[in-house]
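Structure first, sequence second, as always.
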């Protein structure tokens, strides 16, 4: 099997900047009116800034060339950007250096900002008169908490626009050659999360273990062994083809093609780590050789 690499274009590389190293929520200093000599502040009857708008923007699976045109335009003109851990580095590099940027990433056991604080941040930035780009990996409405953020913004009386993005499952399918649906193998496609709000993996196992469907589990790598055990216990053969794909569409992409019974051990041996998708179903057997099998040393 051969590695597939995605190299940012020269135009993107020339705009490369480092991720913000400031503390979460810290933004560049802004003029507040007046100066250190004690000059009078702006008139108190000056009209307040118009309330801005929040754009919940899907950044896609990581490759900047998979951004929608709408997403690319909003990023290029952004005045304030709140971005997630799963937004690809090459896409973060597209944020203008003049934009206020806030890292609000969520990794296992390490949240830069809790969700309620992110919701309030979006509202506060918009009330300052800024049009806010809330940049989320994949699609905002597919395991991206976009629905929660939309509700919070709209409850505050602020306009909200949803900009869809290519979800990670579609990105992983395109760069591995594994189809998500197939007339002979999978007439149903199911997306599930492997990390529930209460920290459990109490999923609808009978529904997920049905034959002739493709199952894609987001954020489930930490519970991989339990997931495979439950799927087998609820009827899927232990020999059912399965795969784990890390960082699909990015230069760090790697993965392993296995069976339900062997997948947890194979993932450990190959050193595959999050972010990763779990794919289960007969369509995995169609793998044309594009699925990567690199080890941890390749992705470190």
């Amino acid at each position: 099997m051969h590695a597939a690499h995605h190299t940012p274009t020269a135009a993107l590389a020339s705009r490369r900047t480092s991720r913000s190293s400031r503390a979460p929520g810290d933004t560049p200093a802004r003029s507040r009116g007046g100066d250190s000599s004690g000059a009078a502040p702006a008139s108190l009857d000056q009209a307040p800034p118009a309330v801005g708008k929040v754009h919940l923007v899907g950044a896609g699976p990581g490759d900047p060339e998979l951004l929608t045109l709408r997403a690319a335009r909003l990023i290029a003109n952004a005045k304030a950007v709140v971005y997630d851990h799963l937004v690809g580095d090459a896409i973060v590099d597209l944020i203008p250096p003049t934009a206020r940027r806030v890292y609000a990433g969520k990794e296992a056991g390490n949240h830069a900002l809790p969700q309620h604080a992110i919701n309030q941040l979006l509202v506060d930035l918009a009330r300052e008169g800024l049009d806010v780009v809330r940049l989320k990996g994949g699609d905002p409405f597919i395991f991206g908490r976009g629905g929660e953020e939309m509700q919070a913004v709209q409850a505050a009386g602020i306009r909200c626009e949803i900009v869809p993005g290519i979800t990670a499952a579609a990105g992983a399918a395109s760069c591995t050659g594994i189809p998500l649906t197939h007339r002979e193998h999978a007439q149903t496609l199911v997306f599930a999360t492997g990390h529930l709000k209460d920290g459990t993996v109490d999923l609808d196992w009978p529904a997920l273990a049905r034959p002739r469907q493709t199952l894609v589990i987001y954020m489930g790598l930490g519970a991989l062994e339990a997931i495979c055990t439950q799927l087998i216990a609820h009827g899927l053969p232990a020999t059912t083809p399965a795969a784990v794909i890390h960082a699909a569409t990015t230069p760090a992409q790697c993965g392993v093609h296995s069976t339900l019974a062997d997948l947890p051990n194979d993932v450990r041996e190959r050193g595959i780590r999050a972010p990763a998708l779990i794919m289960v179903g007969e369509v995995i057997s169609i793998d044309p050789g594009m699925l990567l099998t690199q080890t941890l040393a390749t992705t470190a």
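Margin note: Residues 1-44, 293-300 have pLDDT under 50 and may be disordered.
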